[in-house]
Amino acid sequence: MKTKKVLVGIAAIGLALSLAACSGGTRGGTTADDSAGSSKGALVGVAMPTKTSERWIKDGDAVKASLEKLGYKVDLEYADDKIPQQVQQISNMLTKGAKVLIIASIDGTALSDQLDEAGKAGVKVIAYDRLINGNKNVDYYTTFDNNEVGVQQATSLLTGLGVLDKDGKETGATGPFNVELFGGSPDDNNATFFFNGAMDTLQPYIDKGVLVVKSGQVGFTQVATLRWDPATAQKRMQNLIASTYSDGSKVDAVLSPYDGLSIGIISALTSSGYATDALPIVTGQDAEAASVKSMIAGQQYSTIYKDTRQLGDEAVKMADDLLNGRTPEVNDTTSYDNKVKVVPTFLFAPQVVTKDNYKELLVDTGYYTEADLK
Ligand code: BGC
């Protein structure tokens, strides 16, 4: 028990150091200029979930470009958020002779037959951003610290309400503030990490009565949003306003786990009569251009920036290592149990963005140009 605690402590320090090192920019190792060595020309399959969200387009483009720069062939596919389509695409990649698969899954449990086949053929599998569950042939995983994303979303909600100050200290504000909660897609392993991280942070304030979830809908399954669909979230927000807030009370904050949902939630609020300067604090994730514009316009309050360039570079580095007989570097060997094994993971650090720091985080780093946000 004691040894375990010490090991966990060491791992945590290691992770903190690595995350600190990475959040500043690129880290050492393979760059896009390194050669692919003897594996040059090998096919890498890249399976992305959907083009309806801007982030996955950025991810796919970045991964493809870096792999091609290293001399690999790339089969990049998007699956319209349809599970059978993704299954078919991955089968095709295997038929075409892919040597590595980089997969951002739609349903983290639906790819077992394909992964079995990959395992038999010696094809390596890298889970990209979302963990693939229930199969031993998931060799590596790279993602952002998903629990921390939830913590940051909840913390920014509390800051936006004035319960915490900018340094994270309690202000003594007692509310009560009306809050409604939204979760991500139940088949995406990340969604519960986000929700649990957020709820661990919010629960003490719910317990003290500073926050009130007026609808009473607090369980993940009650608040989840299948396939992260913005229209589903918009509809649920409309229903909440009509059912829970018809007495004239106001929503003060909405925990939203993804920018696409936040845009839907804000639409529901404005069409129900909330003026821009009286909108609740609405959180988000991904720093999508539409949401950054909404923050600049004083609508959405915050988002979480996950630099997809870092993630893409890492997945490419892992693929290149695997194709050349090297062991990929990881910084987390405890957090991501896919129900069959703990998958070795390289984690990156997410960051909270608001109107106050978007220039520094998103424009100065070249993630967006000022023109992208006009
Ligand atoms: C990703 C988030 C994204 C969500 C919806 C999650 O798996 O980690 O960045 O907002 O999917 O696309």
UniProtKB/TrEMBL annotation:
Cell compartment(s), UniProt: Cell envelope
A molecular-function term among this protein's GO annotations: carbohydrate binding
Residues making up the signal peptide according to the UniProt record: 1-21
GO CC annotation: outer membrane-bounded periplasmic space
Segments forming domain Periplasmic binding protein: 44-326
Coiled-coil regions listed: none
Transmembrane domains' residue ranges: none
Name by which UniProt lists this protein: Sugar ABC transporter substrate-binding protein
Organism: Cryobacterium shii
